[in-house]
Amino acid sequence: MASARAMIERRRSSRVLIRIPVQLFTNDIHGEPVDRLAEAIAVSRNGALIRGTFEPVLGSRIEVLNGLSQEIQEFRVIRVTRSEESSVFELGLEMLYPTRNFWGVQFPDEAL
Question: Is there a contact between 78 and 90 (Cβ–Cβ < 8 Å)?
Answer without folding.
Answer: no
